[in-house]
Amino acid sequence: MSEAWWKEAVIYQVYPSSFLDTNGDGWGDVKGITSKLDYLQELGVDVVWVSPIYKSPQKDMGYDIADYKSIDPIYGTIEDVDNLVSELKKRGMKLMMDLVVNHTSDEHEWFRQSRSSLTNPNRSWYIWKKPKRDAAGNPLPPNNWSQILGEANSAWTYDAKTDEYYLSLFTPEQPDLNWENPEVRAAVHDVMKFWLERGACGYRMDVINLISKDQRFPDAEPALGPDRRYHPGSQYYVNGPRMHEYLQEIKHKVLQKFGAITVGEMPGVSDINEIIRTVGSKSGELNMIFIFDVVEIDTQPGNVRMTLHEWSVKDLAKAVSKWQRAMLEHDGWNSVFVENHDNPRSVSRYCDDSDTYREHGAKLLALMQTTLSGTLFVYQGEELGMRNVPKSWDIMKEYKDIESINFWKKSRELYGNDPKRLAEERKVLEKKARDHARTIMQWNGGANAGFCESGVEPWMRVNDDYKEVNAEKQQSADDEEELSTWQFWQRGLANRKAHSDCFVYGDFHAVGPESDEVFAYLRLGKESGKWLVVLNFSGKKVDWNIPDELKVEGWMAGNYQKGKPDKRMERSVGLRPWEGVLGKCID
């Protein structure tokens, strides 16, 4: 397996609106990111990925872009971004931009022109279709596809002026670009070159596997039941017929010329051959993609994201092991992550986020991620063990995300007279809403968690636990027995880099029988040797039997203590609730 700097890099995602406000408007900004680069460097970060900061009406928190070459005033100026790149460079760090080109904002000039008339030159830059008609002649959507961020609604939006519908898979304010048009592709290439020339090292590519649609635009299967008008049409636009052609074009016309790195967001795909076609080292279009098996572990199979599904430690182990082995065997490359701006907090999702076990759970997840092969992504606040918002929060008042608002609106309309079912719908939001990841970054225990000055109201409420869970407290922790979550992450990232031959590039094997509590695996490096990782993903004490073929020389790290775990050198290892240990094995 070939080595590369980006494979060993730690990439930290900044959600800019919630990171740090420096001008007193209650909204995070670019200068706030720049001011915290020393914090990120000390943690062990190499690349800062910034979620969209382009000009936007903010209908979907910047993922609705009105101008790809301008910075939204709420975040600052293009000169602020230039300064961010310069300050990163001084520290040996890099900037990754967020590329959102499946769709634009409906306020983008391209779309303003496109919707102005049937004959405008930009008309074919978007996907327009004539309506169907009911018996009375009223317009109906061209097909039954549902909206991704509100499946009760159609993915098509009617434009009365031109009497046609445009495709808007996410929201009506986010019309899909028509990638069949070579002028659109050329415009996207131009945007990519613009930011690479300004010093960006590459892109996280938003829903990049949705850019090619089946040009027949057929009806979707009624997956949501016969009582629903609209259904997910993903089989007709996920990894569509020309996607690889478009990505190869980007690779040869843009990426290779700049040596840019890429990570593609590609939901809805789990076929190994299809993924290797995208990220294989020989002919792949992208360096890596986000594979969603782990973050969709609690989603009903074949259903939309906002559903709940019981999962087991066996499921987690299978998902992680599948892709660790697949990339080794097919010469591809993984991304390692369990959090981002579109998913709830990992300690609340996979562990026990109670005051008793929150830190142990957060460090358990850190131990797992820092010992898995692939490029590691850390989401802001994950290094602190930030958790989901309290269940007591008022949804209509405190939740801001458009997906959450649409979901709750639909739920109240459908189940307003069914308290039991409505409570179940609320539970989905409490567990999986994107809002959980978007609360204010908790810098300290002062006013507004240090995000903005006292007297300024943040755009979103600060989580109630900020006085106990914050960066200042964790960085300065001086406990003789135990590391804070931040300190554990810092140590884990340093160890990962020191033993990159093992934890980044090494071989991987799941070990032991399938378990309802424990996920264990072996990592093997050419120089660092053989390491055993044992993770107790349960709230009870477990004795885990070490396989006969393995001999642990010593337990070197764990999430319950600062030094080496005090474990007897026997054929089994006793694990406390949510405990993880790292052992050095005799080769």
From TrEMBL:
UniProt keyword annotation of Hydrolase present: yes
InterPro entries in alphabetical order: GH, GH13_cat_dom, Glyco_hydro_b, O16G_dom_2
All residue ranges annotated as the Glycosyl hydrolase family 13 catalytic domain in the record: 13-438
Biological-process GO terms, alphabetical: maltose catabolic process; sucrose catabolic process
Annotated Pfam families: Alpha-amylase
CDD domains linked to this entry: AmyAc_SI_OligoGlu_DGase
Molecular-function GO terms, alphabetical: alpha-amylase activity; glucan 1,4-alpha-maltotriohydrolase activity; oligo-1,6-glucosidase activity; sucrose alpha-glucosidase activity
Keywords from the UniProt entry: Glycosidase, Hydrolase, Maltose metabolism
Record-stated family: Belongs to the glycosyl hydrolase 13 family.
PANTHER family hit by this protein: ALPHA-AMYLASE FAMILY MEMBER, GLYCOSYL HYDROLASE FAMILY 13 CATALYTIC DOMAIN-CONTAINING PROTEIN
Listed name of the protein: Glycosyl hydrolase family 13 catalytic domain-containing protein
Species this protein is from: Letharia lupina
